[in-house]
Design a protein that fits this description.
The complex is a heterodimer of chains A (about 160) and B (about 100). Chain A is mostly helical. Helix content of chain A is about 75%, strand content about 0%. Chain A has one domain. Chain B has about 100 residues and is of the alpha+beta class. Helix content of chain B is about 55%, strand content about 20%. The chains are: A mainly alpha (about 160), B alpha+beta (about 100). Strand 1 of chain A pairs antiparallel with strand 1 of chain B.
Chain lengths: ~160, ~100
Amino acid sequence: MDAMPTKDEARGALKAADEARDALRRAARPPTWYLMLFSINPGAIVGVQAIPDSIGWVAWAVLVGLIAVDLAVLVRTRHSRGVQGGPRWSWRELRYVGAASVGLIGIAVGVVLAPEAAAGTERWYAIAGVGLAILTFLLATVLWRVPAESRERVA
Amino acid sequence: MTKAVFDEEIHSPVRLRVCSMLGAAESVDFATLSTALGVADSVLSKHLSRLEEAGYVTVAKLPAAGHIRTWVGLTKSGRRALAEHLAELRQIADDAGM
């Protein structure tokens, strides 16, 4: 076949195909501020335990509001990004993996801290909440930056 | 294992990029596709028509928030042809004898 590419042309074409997939992945990603917003949730759920009971309901209301806004943004983002299905190991999958991992960590922290009824427990909830929020963000950020090749199962 | 088959319909630079993008999703909005590719709408339309004639892509116009949105996706045979074409390119690129 006279149209068969040379070795260099084939390499160039493969590179162009990879770059195109990366461009789509970038287009399908939600903005970074959304990642930051989402990463606050698990830490906030633990951290809110540190709020004194007298104003605890306000803190919970704020937290539920935050999660509601987060979900609304998720729905809005999903419908406005112009990509259905998403790349394999898409941001949605990464988010679920991150959220599930952090959920487990949150439960573990809760199990460890719950029996501590003595004064000062709130302090540990607050520290755990902040630590968890930071950990979630780092985890999500690391997963976010995993090279395309290792995330992608070539069709 | 994926067969290695060279496909002239896919090999054109723009069409290869289009198929690679579509291969990473179920479907992509026309505007998103043209922006990500950096090509004019008319150029993209022309290439999509060619891929549609080959049976590699489907184009669906769906209403969305008061306007019509055009969604483009690879068909089953399009996905297979892309995989086979990429396998052929890899084979050529890795061929130590060339």
